[in-house]
Amino acid sequence: MLPVAPGVSLRLGARWDARVGSDPQPELTELSSVAGARVVAWHSLVGPDHVRLQALCATAPSDRWVPGIEEIVLDRAMALTRRGVPGEIVRWEPGAVRAAPAGTGSSFEQGFTGGARQGEGSRAVRGRILLGFEGEERSALLCSVLCTEPAVASAAGSGCESLVEATALEGELAAPPAPGAVVRGLLLVAEHPRPVGAALVLAAVTGIVVLLQRRPRHR
């Protein structure tokens, strides 16, 4: 179990005597563009038969969350996860996005499989992206799990398959947050552009009138 937030852990399926890998914690410059985002956990495990399991979790404010955006978030996380695959990727097959109830809240997940060419050999690739929410502020919690192993070992009986299938977010997850006021306004405009657009113009004009009325008069 890898603690990732108060009351929430990432369950890793590593049942073998793994050792922590020597890979340094990655510098995710992509997170610098998201206000309040930070890496909360990073783990690299190496097991028998050259099986390598990497897990990274990050949190970020969810004030701009809207239903359906989970597919965009998971797709972006998938693209970043690809960068951690050793060698040249020759096959990449993302799975479907699934909503997975967990604990008191819910989470979303998307698995993937693939293959990579590294030196004279090839490696099988398997992993999962998990998205949940935690805490009173329902901050977004995103975890990426990547497992690679020699293709020969995978064909004989995938160690990565059992490891990734056992991966899950566990603990006191919160329900997805309701859309914020700004996001709700944008959604309303999208659904009813003319009446809402007129209302927004009216509100803007009213605000200008109020400001003009409160402006100090020159004598």
Structure notes:
With 219 residues, the chain is an alpha+beta fold. The protein has 2 domains: 2-171, Protein Transport Mog1p, Chain A; 181-214, no CATH class. It has helices at residues 70-82, 151-157, 159-165, 181-191, 193-214, and strands at 2-5, 8-11, 19-20, 38-46, 52-60, 88-102, 105-118, 121-134, 139-150, 168-171. It has a 7-stranded antiparallel beta sheet, sandwiched between helices. It is globular, with a radius of gyration of 23 Å. Residues 181-219 have low confidence and may be disordered. Keywords: Membrane, Transmembrane, Transmembrane helix.
- Would you identify the regions where 5 or more consecutive residues have pLDDT less than 50? 181-219
Strand content: 35-45%
| Whole-number tally of structural domains | 2
- State the separation between the terminal residues, measured CA to CA: 72 Å
Could you name the CATH topology of the largest domain? Protein Transport Mog1p, Chain A
Q: Write down the overall mean pLDDT.
A: 73
Number of strands: 10
In CATH terms, what is the architecture of the largest domain? Answer: 3-Layer(aba) Sandwich
The major pleated sheet works out as: 7 strands, antiparallel
Percent helix: 25-40%
The top-level CATH class of the largest domain is: Alpha Beta
In DSSP terms (H or I, runs of 4 or more residues), the helix count works out at 5
Keywords: Membrane, Transmembrane, Transmembrane helix
Transmembrane segments: 196-212
